[in-house]
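Hi R.,

Here's the chain you asked about this morning:
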Amino acid sequence: MEFDELDVVALAADLPAEGLKAGAVGTIVDIFRDPELAYEVEFTDDDGATLSLTTLTPEQVRPA
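And the predicted structure, written out as tokens:
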């Protein structure tokens, strides 16, 4: 499944280096297509502060 900018997605697996667990919800803020498809996803806390801004492959995200 391909996502669009500003889509809300969930993390498919833990990302220990980012302190994120599978199921964490984030927003796609950018999409890269070259050299291959990837998503820049922002994860925030309940107050809207950024917890992580990371680039993920399509396999690392799923619909929220």
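Residues 25 and 46 are 11 Å apart (CA to CA).

Let me know if you need anything else.
M.
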